[in-house]
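Budget justification aside, the reviewers requested a transparent look at the raw inputs and outputs of the sequence design task funded under Objective 1. We therefore reproduce one unedited record. The lines immediately below are the structure tokens for a 544-residue chain.
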């Protein structure tokens, strides 16, 4: 088991005698001067205003009116011809998409959205022409999806779409409310072969490889029971205490599941203004009084079916510029691959037709990991087959007593280019708190070193936002703050597009204040959002 203006001029004259024309010319020369050319004043202009400039309505209904107003300058009179371009097929404009508006007046316009209207925003251009002038403005009309929730058997479902296309997300109540389905018109993308699959959070500790609370259940396919569940008209809520993936290390075993010390609350809703898009809000709480060492968390783990084998992401240094994407296949079959830097905070597993599952995790940090685990004995590749593909965003957490963290992720089904456009629409407005602690390493002294006198402590630390300070601790007590910001080009090379060069630190540790004998040396790196990362302890011996 496993676990994206033209000036307008005119001339009017009456020519009834040569003398009149000469007299007129002489008058003009006296009042304006004669320099070989002259121009008449431009015709009065008008301005075009829209109120509001954007409207939305559920498919199958009509929008609120948009007022298209013409405001003329002094001397402007008459009416302006108005036309609308870019109206989606099937959408009815009332009045029709070509009409006249008198100067100083306004015309309310509504848009009737059939039930088959594609979900999402459309930009419509309003063009107005009159008095020798032309102006344009834009209206954004957004078709919102129809949403419903229901329970069928042990699953909670939320559907979102129009009369033609329906996306569905499903949560399994027998497996902690983990997400076991994301589909469009019945085509499913999520694998649910066992409790280690699905789309779900799973937690890791940097100092205990066996500590691994997993939302769906444990390695023996025991499902995590729900503590609470509720269906609202437009959302699903569940609460569960994930089981330890390896119960044998916590007093359990094959017939005895063990609850972990994490609590997961999950609320799923549809992003009604984006096609095939769902928001999952997670709140996680540590129930224990101990500390789980800093490590990358699967937030969430994402498993897809066999055909969705290509991982797509932006791997450049200039995110949010529509740069070229990278489409690859994880090279290490069945094994975790080295983390990749994903500065746009989204990745997708897609098939040969570029369709699949995209996950946008705006708060999780820039490191993602994944693998392919294909089973040649499974030709079908359906949701319950053993063949699967996986990736996960990896926010860096130190899980301390009272630890609580909240964040949103977005799941988008279908074509990855369309998904990237949706991510770009979401990015400027979504809440994205900094939840990832710094990454760090203690280089010196080495484990097992014998220390005396003044000893140099060195290493590196970097953060997805900014490191605020690095502290040196002996036996869990802070001894002082290290000098941070030294050049470490080796670290920048190992984590391209992510770290600046100056991420090194150094500290002079006086060992004479400590008793002779064994001690544990650690570093504590804190970022500007007060996320804390504590390095694994290094056993040293003081001998003065």
């Amino acid at each position: 088991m496993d676990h994206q203006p033209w000036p307008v001029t005119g001339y009017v004259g009456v020519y009834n005698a040569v003398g009149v024309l000469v007299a007129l010319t002489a008058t003009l020369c006296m009042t304006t001067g004669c320099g070989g050319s002259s121009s008449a004043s431009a015709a009065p202009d008008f301005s075009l205003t829209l109120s509001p400039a954007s409207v939305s309505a559920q498919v199958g209904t009509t929008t609120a009116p948009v007022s298209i107003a013409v405001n003329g300058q002094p001397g402007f009179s008459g009416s302006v011809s108005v036309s609308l371009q870019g109206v989606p097929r099937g959408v009815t404009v009332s009045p029709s998409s070509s009409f006249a508006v008198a100067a100083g007046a306004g015309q309310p316009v509504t848009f009737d959205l059939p039930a088959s209207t594609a979900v999402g925003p459309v930009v419509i251009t309003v063009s107005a022409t009159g008095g020798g002038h032309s102006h344009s403005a834009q209206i954004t009309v957004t078709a919102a999806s129809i949403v419903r929730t229901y329970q069928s058997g042990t699953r909670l479902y939320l559907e979102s779409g129009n009369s033609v296309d329906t996306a569905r997300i499903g949560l399994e109540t027998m497996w902690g409310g983990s997400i076991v389905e994301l589909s469009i018109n019945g085509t499913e993308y999520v694998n649910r072969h066992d409790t280690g699959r699905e789309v779900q959070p799973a937690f890791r500790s940097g100092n205990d490889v066996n500590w691994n609370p997993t939302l769906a259940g444990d390695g023996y396919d025991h499902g995590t029971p729900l503590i609470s569940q509720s269906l609202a008209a437009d959302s699903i809520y569940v609460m569960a205490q994930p089981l330890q993936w390896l119960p044998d290390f916590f007093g359990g075993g094959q017939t005895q599941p063990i609850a972990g010390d994490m609590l997961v609350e999950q609320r799923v809703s549809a992003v009604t203004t984006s096609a095939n898009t769902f928001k999952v809000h997670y709140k996680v709480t540590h129930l224990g009084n101990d500390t789980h060492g800093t490590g990358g968390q699967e937030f969430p783990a994402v498993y897809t079916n066999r055909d969705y084998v290509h991982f797509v992401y932006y791997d450049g240094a200039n995110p949010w510029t529509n740069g070229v994407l990278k489409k690859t296949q994880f090279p290490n079959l069945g094994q975790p691959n080295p983390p990749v830097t994903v500065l746009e905070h989204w990745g997708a597993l897609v098939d040969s037709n570029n369709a699949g599952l995209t996950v946008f995790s705006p708060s999780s940090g820039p490191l993602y990991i994944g693998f392919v685990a294909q089973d040649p004995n499974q030709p079908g590749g359906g949701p319950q087959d053993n063949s699967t593909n996986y990736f996960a965003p990896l926010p860096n957490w130190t899980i301390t007593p009272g630890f609580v963290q909240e964040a949103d992720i977005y799941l988008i089904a279908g074509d990855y280019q369309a998904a990237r456009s949706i991510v770009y629409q979401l990015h400027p407005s979504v809440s994205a708190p900094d939840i990832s602690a710094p990454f760090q390493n203690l280089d010196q002294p080495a484990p097992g070193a014998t220390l005396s006198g003044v000893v140099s402590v060195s290493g590196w630390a970097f953060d997805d936002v900014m490191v605020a300070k690095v502290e040196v601790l002996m036996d869990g007590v802070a001894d002082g703050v290290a000098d941070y910001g030294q050049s470490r080009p080796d670290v920048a090379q190992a984590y391209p597009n992510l770290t600046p060069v100056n991420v090194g630190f150094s500290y002079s540790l006086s060992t004479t204040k400590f008793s002779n004998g064994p001690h544990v040396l650690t570093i504590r790196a804190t970022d500007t959002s007060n996320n804390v990362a504590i390095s694994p302890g290094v056993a040293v011996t003081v001998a003065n």
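Residues 146-426 form a domain with the Beta-galactosidase; Chain A, domain 5 fold (CATH 2.70.98.10). The longest strand covers residues 133-144. Computational costs for records of this kind are itemized in the attached budget.
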